[in-house]
Structure formats: C-alpha cells, structure tokens
Amino acid sequence: MATDSFVPIAPRPPPVNAEGLVPWLRRNLFGDWKSSLTTVVLIGLVLYLLPLLAQWGLFQAVFGANADACQAARGTGACWGVITEKWRVIIFGRYPFEQQWRPEIATVLMVAALVISCVRWFWKPWLALMWVAVLAVFFSLMGGGVFGLEPVRTDLWGGLPLTVMLATLSIFLAFPIAVLVALGRRSQLPAIRTACVIYIELIRGVPLISVLFMASFMFPLFMPQGMSIDVLVRVLVGITLFAAAYMAEIVRGGLQAIPKGQLEAADTLGLSYWQTQRKIVLPQALAMVVPSMMNNFISIFKDTSLVTIVSLYELTGALGLALNSDVEWRPFKIEAYLFITAIYFAFCFAMSRYSLWVEKQVSVSRTR
C-alpha cells in the first residue's frame, strides 16, 4: 500500500512593519514609479524655490516701518514694515484708535469661547449661559453706551472682530434653521414642504453678493416710513439665511441616508415624530455629514469678506482701507495680503483639524 509523501508548507514571510517614517514614506510618497517621480520633482522644485523665498522674505526683507527703506528694497526683498505700520487698521478697521482695546478684548473673549466650546469636557448645560454672557460682553464692548463706554456706530466696526463675529453668529444661527428646513423639505405636509423648497432653491439660485445687496439697499425700501434696521443686523440675517439654505441640503443628504427600517422600528416602539428625530435620526444624520458641514462653515468664514460691498470693512476690506488711502505703503499689498492670508489660514486650518477630530470620535462611537 502506497503512502502519501509528506510535503512541508513553505514558511510565511514575516509581517511588514506598517508604522514609522520609512513605511509612511513608502506608502504615501514612493508607492509606485509615478508617485516617486512626482515626489522627486516636487522636492527639487522646493529646493530651488526655498532659497529664493528665504532671500525675499527674510534676509533682504525690511521689517521696520520705514517707507524709504522699503522702496529701496522693492523687487529684491519683502516689506514687512507695512504690517508694522498698518496692522492696527488691518485688524480693527475704522474703529476709533484710542478705543481699540475694546475690540481686542471682545475678539479674545469670543475666540476663547469658541475654543472652550470645542472641548468635550466643557459640554455642560452652563455652556449656553456662557455664550449669552460672552455675546453680551462682546456687543457691550464693541457698541459702547454702557458702563461709561463711548458709543461707537456699527458702521465703524471692522477688521478681525467683525469677521469673527459675523462668522460665529451666522454659523450658530444657520445651524438650527438648516435642520428645521431640511426636516420641512422631507415633511408629508405639502404647504411646509413647498415653502422649504422655495426658500432653498431661491437662496441657492443667487450669489451671496446679491443677497447682501438686497439686505442692505433693497430691504429698507420695504420698511415703513421712519423705521430702519441697522445695516449690520441686515447683513447678519442675509449671511445666516444664505448659509442655512446650503446647510439644509447637506443635512437632508444625511437624513436620506438613514435606513427606513429604523423609522419603522421607532414607530413600532411608539415614539413620536420629534422623539424619533431627536433620538434616532438626527444624531446619525449629522454624524454622517460632518465633513460637508465643516466645509460649509469654512466657506461662511471666508465669505464674510463680501460684506465690503455694503461698506462694512471686515478683515479684507480693512486691508484695502489701510493701503488705498496711503500712497507710500500702497505698493506693498502683497505683504499685507500674505498677512491676512495667514490669519484666514489659521482659522480655517483649525476648523479642518477639529472636523477630523469629530470624525474620529464618531467612528469610535460606531465601532462600540
């Protein structure tokens, strides 16, 4: 009787280390010949441009507020002296010079409140009361007229404080409106569904500049004789309604991704419509659309630059105000725009990093 011969199994290769710098480089930069070629070309381009940028931005640059020295270095070195000379106007706009400590404190308070609101440990019931207090202090400092502060008209507000305030309030106000409109568009009641569809399509069919123009110049024509609403309020309402229309479609996409079986299960358990939305549908739907919502938030923050059309000089408008009125510093707009670009990038990059953190937290909760 023949017996089968024993055939040994070949040894398996050792596991490949997937952690560390070398595996990361191999996976992301040198995965194949196309990726490797692109990486080498980009590295060469950076090595070529970096010394030139260093010469222009550091070694031959002028950092003092000396217009003659900047003119002498023009074409060979950067003039950071324009920021040294004009940073107050760029940051605070036309706000009275001797009172600029007020918008400085107000902006620090609001940014600090935003940072606190993003930390999970502070998600307590008192957070809403903190925001009420912060907004009260912000508008008291900016507007004055209380506690012996000199009144300052809203058309003199500008720069970074105006940008932060418009972006923060429009995001906070647009979010609940967007959720309600998204639910309304999926409603079984024809009147509510039609009203929400008209609102979304009408707002999304025009650019934000048109909305701001209507809010600033056309809306007062429909007001009763002698009645007027502050232009800052009208602009804030316009940005909020515009952002809410886009955000409502984002939320509606998340709502459509919820399986119908979950709604039927909620009906079986006897949950009401609002209980179903609050406990089952909205938590899942909003978690699915975190990246799109954060993109919308970043877009809102950058779109505040359009309020210059209605003579509210936020960060970008304040820069033009600072340079266009001074012939000596007007040629150095590139350096000034790089300055506000760094400010915009810092805020937008922080929001994108926070979005990634939220996505990671949501993915962890799904795997439990």
Structural description of this entry:
With 368 residues, the protein is mainly α. It has a domain of 165 residues: Orthogonal Bundle (MetI-like fold). 68% of the residues lie in helices and 0% in strands. The protein contains 15 helices and no strands. Helix 7 crosses helix 13, helix 10 packs across helix 12 and helix 11 runs antiparallel to helix 12. The longest helix is centred in the C-terminal third of the chain and has 35 residues. The relative contact order is 0.09.
Can you give me a brief rundown of this structure?
This protein has 15 helices and no strands.
Helix content: 55-70%
Q: CATH superfamily membership of one domain, which one?
A: MetI-like
End-to-end distance, in Å?
57 Å
Structural class: mainly alpha
Q: In angstroms, what is the radius of gyration?
A: 27 Å
The major β-sheet equals:
none
Give the count of helical stretches.
15
Chain-wise SSE layout:
Elements: H1 21-28, H2 33-59, H3 67-72, H4 81-92, H5 101-117, H6 126-143, H7 159-185, H8 190-204, H9 208-218, H10 231-256, H11 260-268, H12 273-288, H13 290-303, H14 315-324, H15 333-367
Keywords:
single chain, 15 helices, 368 residues, mainly alpha
